[in-house]
Amino acid sequence: MALFNTPSSSLLQAQNFFTSPKKISPLLITVSCSKSPSQPTSSPSPVDDNSENQEPKRRLSKQSSWEAKDSEGKDYLYRLGKEADNMNIAVGARAGVVDSLFAGNFLGKDSDIVFDYRQKVTRSFEYLQGDYYVAPLFLDKVVCHIVKNYLAHLLNVKVPLILGIWGGKGQGKSFQTELIFQTMGVEPVIMSAGELESERAGEPGKLIRERYRTASQVVQNQGKMSCLMINDIDAGLGRFGNTQMTVNNQIVVGTLMNLSDNPTRVSIGQDWRESDITNRVPIIVTGNDLSTIYAPLIRDGRMDKFFWQPNREDIVNIVHRMYEKDGISRDEVVSIVNRFPNQALDFYGALRSRTYDRSISKWVDDIGGIENLGKQLLRRKKDEKLPVFTPPEQTLEALLESGYSLIREQQLIMETKLSKEYMKNIDD
């Protein structure tokens, strides 16, 4: 009992330092850490003799971000520990912003602890090089949806947060949307249907909220337009026949419905604060059949639907722009489209890719055959260059030959159903 009732002066000073933050005055910044022996003291110290060997308390740096207060009077460390997940991706070891203890030379004077994370989440489309054609109807719908959501606070109408672009396979829904993002300078956060399921319940719904908040922070911190895009949403949320419905499917649907109803209040598990307001960013989803998705999610107040089926003029313009650099005229493109009707846009891209097969086989022979392929591609020296690959000369005859080859493969898949041969006891 005596140990607790009679604390020593050194323990008392330690308690006062941690329990009385008001005693650390900002004026201590200008006070020297050492005391000159020639300067007289006004009054003797009330502590014992051991205090003479103790160094005075000082702050870690002249500018400490850990003691900065928010609007509620809470410092950074308090808020960081209070929140379940810290979504402040702008925190980095930047010199002059955080204490020098955490921005040493071993990290670099201007290190960013989340650079890789930020680069992986957002997409900037530098790889899209060249001149492409975007259908005017598709362009108008996507641009109108993005602009309406950024002006939602000024419009006296109900603006749906989600745009559902659906249609046949391979019609360029995702690619044309990315072309529009590149033209508008939008830096989106893109997800796929494979991220809508997890072995842990609730993880995909939380991921959607985190990605939505990340897109909001792109608007706030970088001054760029952003949005959340989910590709092939019906592959992750659609109900096909006897497809099993999981808890994660229900949570993802509920998360998207909640985002549509409350786009500026997004929780990721932390305590609510009045200052925690998320910027509204639009959501764009693509799919092949939206009728397989939970009906309340796709209702008109939450999702604006757009069925995309390019007409013949759109297909000719898109394919002609694709073949233009190969010297294929518009009349030749029209003849190709007429020869292979009722084909998706990706068919004509695969048709051009098939013409490269012979040139690639010749290039493999030039580098020493398939035996030396791995050595030439992966284990060559840094100053050693690969043999020059000569692209094939595109002609109408070569493109038609590749098209007939693709058509034969399609027919074989539809006609030769080996599953019926292997499992004859399975009904159709």
TrEMBL record:
Region (Disordered): 33-68
Main location: plastid
Coiled-coil regions listed in the entry: none
Top-rank taxon, per record: Eukaryota
Kinase among keywords: no
Every Ribulose bisphosphate carboxylase/oxygenase activase AAA helical domain range: 312-410
Subcellular location: Plastid, Chloroplast stroma
UniProt key word Repressor: no
Keywords annotated in UniProt: ATP-binding, Chloroplast, Nucleotide-binding, Plastid
ATPase AAA-type core domain ranges (all copies): 165-309
Compositionally biased residues, Low complexity: 33-46
Family membership noted in the UniProt record: Belongs to the RuBisCO activase family.
Known function: Activation of RuBisCO (ribulose-1,5-bisphosphate carboxylase/oxygenase; EC 4.1.1.39) involves the ATP-dependent carboxylation of the epsilon-amino group of lysine leading to a carbamate structure.
Protein name stated in the entry: Ribulose bisphosphate carboxylase/oxygenase activase, chloroplastic
Organism: Salix suchowensis
